[in-house]
Amino acid sequence: MPGIATHTQGALARLGLGPAPAAPSTPAAKPDDDDHDQPAKPAAHGHTGEEGEGKEHGEAGEIHMTAEQITSQEIGTAAVAGGTLSRHLVVPGTVTPDADRLVRVPARVVGTVAEMRKRLGDKVQKGDVVAVLDSREVADAKSDFLTAGVQAELQKINFERQQKLISSQATAQVSFDQARATYQESQLRLDLARQKLSALGLNAAEVAAAAKRDEATPNQSSLRLFPLRAPMDGRIVERKVDVGTKVGGEGDPADVYTIADLSTVWVELAVPTTALINVAEGAKVLIGTGTDEKTLRAEGQVVFISPFLNADTRSARVIVALPNPDQTWRPGTFVTAAVAIAEETVPVRVPRTALQTVEGQLVAFVRTDEGFERRAVKVGRSDDDAFEVTEGLAAGDEIAVANTFLLKAELGKAEAGDDD
Fold it and tell me: Are 343 and 103 in contact (CB under 8 A)?
C-alpha cells in the first residue's frame, strides 16, 4: 500500500487502525518526493472459486447481483463522504505508574511499628490511618504541648486577676507587668508546642481530646502512639515493614507502605531522533497489546517530550497519559503505540479496502440497481487506512467497501468469458 511500510500496516491493523496488509500483485509505483502524487495501487486478491447463480454481466465493467447475493457474500457498502486522513508513527512502549499518582507513606518520626492496618491490595482513601507507631519523640511532643497548655491557662488566670487589681489600684504596677509578661511567654510556649505537633502531622485539638480520654483509662495511654495516614486515594501496592520494626532512625526503613492510584498510567515511548520532529505534546496515541482475541486497546495523549536524548539509543523519552479506570493496564506491560503525527481534511475519503487494481487502474465498485459497476478513480493523499479520491467519485455515491476482491473476481471471470 502506498505511503506506509508493510510492517507498519501490520502494527496498525493489530491496534485497530487499519486492515492487515495484503501482498501486492503488481510492483508498487515509487511515490514522488513532493507528496500528493498517486500512490501505488492496492494488491489484487484471489477468486471466489465459483460463480453464484443469478449473476449476469451486461456491458463491460458491470456486475449484475441481487441484494440477496450481495448480503450472502458479505459485500459491505457505504456512502462516499469527506473525512480526515491521519498518519501515525508506530513505536514500542512500556506501561509505568503515573509518577504523580505514586506516593510513599513515610515514618516521619523515630519509633517502632505498633500496628499495620492495611494489607497489600487494599484500597485506601486520603486521611485513612494505615499504620500506628510507638514513638518516644511523639510522646515528648505531646507532653510539651499539654504542659504548655496547662501553664498558659494558669498564667491567664493570674494575669486576669492582676488586671482587676490594677484597675482598683490594689496591686503595684510592677506586679501587673510581671504577670502580663509571664502570660505572654506562656502563650508563646504553647504556640511553639502546637507548631511542633503540626510539623509531625498531629492535630492539637485531637491530642487534647485524647489526653482527656486517657484520664479515664490511665493503663491504655495513647501518648506514645503516632498514626500514619494515607496521603492520597489509591491501593496499597507495597509493604515495607512488619509490626515491631524500628523505623525513622539512621539506617532504619524510612517508608511503611507504597500507595498507587492506577486510574491513570503512563506509557513510556522511545522515539527515534529522525521521527521526533513529527511528535507534539497533546497528540493522540492509540495503545494496543498482543495479536489475539485478548488484545487491549485504548487511546491516550502525549503529555511530555523529553528535551534530552538517550546517549546510547539516540532516542527521546516520550510519555503518554493513558486512562485506566478498570485497572486493566498493568505497569510493566509491553505495548505498541500509534502516535498521530498529521491530520488533513479531504472532501472525498474512501477506505483502502474499497479500491482494487483492474487492468493497471485503481477502481471502485459503485452500487447500481442491477448490482455494481466498475469506475476508475484517481487518488491523492493517503493515510494508514484510507485514500483521498480526486477523480471518479463524489460525495453521496454508494460504493462497496468490504470484500471488494469478490467483485474483482466476478469481473475477471466475466471478461474471461467474453474472450472465449
Answer: no
Burial class (CB in 10 A: 0-12, 13-18, 19+), 268: middle
Cα–Cα distance between 396 and 258 in angstroms, integer? 58
Contact 86, 340 (CB under 8 A): yes
Residue 13: enclosing H or E segment and its boundaries?
A: helix 6-15
- Can you give the pTM of this predicted structure? 0.62
Angle at which helices 136-167 and 204-216 cross, to 10°: 100
Q: Which residues make Cβ contacts (< 8 Å) with residue 145, sequence separation at least 6? A: 190, 193, 194, 196, 197, 204, 207, 208
Per the structure block, which three cell numbers stand in for 95? 506501561
CA atoms of 165 and 170, how far apart (whole Å): 5
* Residue 366: closest CA among 110, 105, 77, 10: 77
Dig out the grid coordinates for 80 from the structure.
462516499
Cell of 262: 492506577
Question: Within 13 Å of residue 196, how many CA atoms lie on the same side as its CB?
Answer: 18
What are the per-10-residue average pLDDT scores of the chain (420 residues)? Answer: 48 56 37 40 39 49 88 92 88 93 92 94 94 91 89 88 78 82 91 89 84 73 87 94 92 94 94 89 88 72 92 90 92 91 88 91 92 93 88 93 90 66
Question: Cell digits for 300?
Answer: 491516550
The CATH T-level fold of domain 91-99+262-340 is: Elongation Factor Tu (Ef-tu); domain 3 (2.40.30)
- The fold of 6-90+344-419 is 2.40.420
Give the residue extent of every domain in the chain.
6-90+344-419, 91-99+262-340, 101-135+225-261, 136-223
